[in-house]
Amino acid sequence: MAYSREFLEQIYRTIYTIRIFEIECIKLYRQGLIIGYFHPYLGEEAIATGVCAALRTDDFIVSTHRGHGHCIARGGELKKMVAEVLGREAGYCRGRGGSMHIADIDTGNIGANGIVGGGIPIGVGAGLGIHVRRTDQVAVIFFSDGACNNGVFAESLNLAAIWNLPVVFVLENNQYAVSSAIEDMSRIPELHKRAEGYGVPAYLVDGNDVLAVYEKTMEATDLCRKGKGPAMIEAMTYRHGGHHVNDPGLYMPKDRLEHYKAKDPLKLARKYLIEQAGCTEKDIEAIKQQAQDAMEQAVDHAKNCPQPSVETFLEEVKQN
Q1: What is this structure's pTM?
Q2: Across the strands, what pairs with 62?
Q3: Is 5-319 in CATH node 3.40.50.970?
């Protein structure tokens, strides 16, 4: 498939923006400015980027506890995102949600979820809403390999199948449920095969290759828009560190980690820019600088935003 230079530049820009967002937020966490857990998306950026590039502006996504990349790829504003993870009033959820609960209804991002697998039935509900309204929108559900062993995954997949709902189940298989390796948690580690038992088309794709992810998502969404959904995509990837920012990831074999780092999504996207778009190093540096400037502005903005008012918070509690 031939791609325009503009498309490939946007793909690279998105992956790089996700990368620096995570790196800068880890620094903010170390400075004590982020309260609670922080789950980096480092190494998995191509999945969110490739999937969201294949969606229309009126489609929906449901995110996870590792959801910053999804929000950025869907068009989220960095200033609101950083403000939210810092717990500031100017954040997407007015500082109430933090890192694991960002939502952006304006971009169709129904929200992240701190419960593993908790977003799956929400996404199926969005798909049911589309079905009832008889539009050709699509709902995409991001979830993890760990979520596959939750009963809600099987129940939701079956319901979507029997009602032909326009839902794409995107399994981000980073090969660990916290520290439990997938081969120890499933007799058949090829998790996309589970969809076969429900009569659901399933695709296995290299989750570090953004264009491969994009192409499979286009296939899956096309099925859904034609009323032949749902569909499932298993994107194989590997996170660049532990489950959360304080997890050293000592259970991750060094040789496997190095193997996947050599297939870094950012490196592959850069390769596409040079080989297919004819970009120079100067062109790439300009894209990176723009993203870095935007991130710096977002951090400065968030640091200067006020904390949520305790009085307002208590009043909200009373009202609810």
Answers
A1: 0.96
A2: 111, 141
A3: yes
